[in-house]
């Protein structure tokens, strides 16, 4: 009886800062869930090469955050015994695949990608767009195809990048044969987790906007950030009816409340629907709701924080995990690159038919 090969999932993060709650609900939880299901081959990486595309003049920022991201991975439950953890820059095959795919995409198509367009606008590049930044969807396609990944746990905003990757795969396969696999995005189970807003209520939680609650924030910092959160500006007195829509405190509760949260921290309510109903009719103050939210978030972050502390004190162990992960990733990516080069006919020294063709061509000259 032959063992069926498990499907692959892969995903990664740019090391431009520590990871935050938006990462946790947007992708990290799904990664750990898929990893622990035993149904997949798992790859998680630090996208340091991609981060350099708009930080090339400040490489120190990337260097100082590579291990921060890895520590966050380990602290949320990414298990090196089940998941291959690696650094993008240490897998040279990814750069070669990126170069190959560059020839299959137009600049106009890259500029139309909604995710890329939004990032260009946020970073105010105007027309001074780093070429490497523009080709982000191509780089991601190299990452996913190198490991023949079928699934990519991502946030909602990354789906256009995944879709462009599928286009590249289809183009390659139509020219060179069925070599590569198309990847599918895997979204969070709850829509409230698709795009967690920042603590200021302005757009998504983002390191560059400074509106994050980081996974490694201490208790006092988490408390401060929760109590400074934007709520309903018309809910001035406790007796005032409050709005749920646009009130990010309730958006966060939608994302983080667990089945036993009310029993633990707010037993006078059975569930979130009851809490929302009370807030909407009036008589429930923001301080009470924020206190509840703080307790819920703190119960999520406390074990993560504790696990991170262990790895911070055992960095040699972390380095070993990365070295082993990079070695395995190079081997797998190398096998894929060989298939790609063979399909394209550029493995010249191993192409017996091509060498025979030239021998016959030159030997048969009159």
Written overview of the protein:
Helices cover 55% and strands 6% of the residues. With 366 residues, the chain is mainly α. The protein has 2 domains: 8-196 and 315-355, HUPs (Rossmann fold, 3-Layer(aba) Sandwich), CATH 3.40.50.620; 219-310, Tyrosyl-Transfer RNA Synthetase, CATH 1.10.240.10. The strands form 2 sheets. Strands 1-2-3 form a 3-stranded parallel sheet. The protein has a two-stranded parallel ribbon with strand order 4-5. Strand 1 (8-13), helix 1 and strand 2 form a beta-alpha-beta unit.
Unreliable residue stretches: none
Say how many strands there are: 5
- Shape field: elongated
Strand line-up in the sheet with most strands: 1-2-3
Tally of structural domains: 2
What fraction, in percent, of the residue positions are helical? Answer: 40-55%
Instruction: Give the termini separation.
Output: 58 Å
- Percent range for β-strand residues: 5-15%
- Our count of helices gives 16
Specify Rg, calculated over alpha carbons.
Answer: 24 Å
Structural class: mainly alpha
Kindly report the CATH topology of the largest domain: Rossmann fold
State the order of secondary-structure elements, H for helix, E for strand: EHEHHEHHHHHEHEHHHHHHH
CATH homologous superfamily grouping of the largest domain: HUPs
CATH class of the largest domain: Alpha Beta
- Largest pleated sheet: 3 strands, parallel
Overall pLDDT confidence? 92
The CATH architecture of the largest domain can be named as 3-Layer(aba) Sandwich
């Amino acid at each position: 009886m032959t063992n069926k090969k498990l499907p692959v999932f892969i995903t990664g993060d740019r090391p431009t800062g520590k990871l935050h709650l938006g990462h946790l609900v947007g992708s990290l939880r799904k990664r750990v869930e898929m990893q622990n299901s035993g149904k997949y081959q798992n790859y998680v990486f630090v996208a340091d090469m991609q981060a350099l595309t708009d930080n090339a003049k400040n490489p120190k920022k990337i260097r100082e955050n590579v291990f921060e991201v890895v520590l966050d991975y380990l602290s949320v439950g990414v298990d090196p015994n089940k998941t291959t953890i690696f650094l993008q820059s240490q897998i040279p095959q990814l750069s070669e695949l990126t170069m190959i795919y560059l020839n299959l995409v137009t600049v106009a198509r890259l500029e139309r990608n909604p995710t890329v367009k939004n990032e260009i606008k946020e970073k105010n590049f105007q027309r001074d767009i780093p070429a490497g930044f523009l080709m982000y969807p191509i780089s991601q396609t190299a990452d996913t195809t190198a490991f023949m990944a079928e699934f990519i746990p991502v946030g909602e905003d990354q789906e256009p990048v995944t879709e462009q990757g599928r286009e590249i795969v289809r183009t390659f396969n139509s020219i060179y044969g069925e070599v590569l696999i198309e990847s599918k995005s895997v979204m969070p189970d709850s829509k409230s987790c698709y795009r967690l807003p920042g603590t200021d209520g302005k757009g998504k939680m983002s390191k560059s906007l400074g509106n994050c609650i980081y996974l490694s924030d201490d208790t006092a910092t988490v408390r401060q950030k929760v109590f400074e959160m934007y709520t309903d500006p018309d809910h001035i007195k406790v007796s005032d009816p409050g709005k749920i829509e646009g009130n990010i405190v309730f958006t966060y509760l939608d994302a983080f409340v667990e089945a036993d949260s009310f029993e633990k921290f707010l037993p006078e309510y059975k569930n979130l629907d009851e809490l929302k109903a009370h807030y909407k009719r009036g008589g429930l103050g923001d301080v009470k709701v924020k206190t509840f939210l703080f307790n819920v978030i703190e119960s999520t972050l406390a074990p993560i924080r504790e696990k991170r502390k262990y790895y911070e004190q055992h960095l040699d162990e972390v380095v070993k995990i990365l070295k082993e992960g990079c070695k395995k990733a190079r081997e797998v990516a190398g096998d894929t690159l060989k298939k790609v080069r063979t399909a394209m006919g550029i493995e010249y020294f191993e192409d017996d038919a091509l060498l025979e063709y030239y021998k016959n061509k030159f030997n048969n000259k009159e």
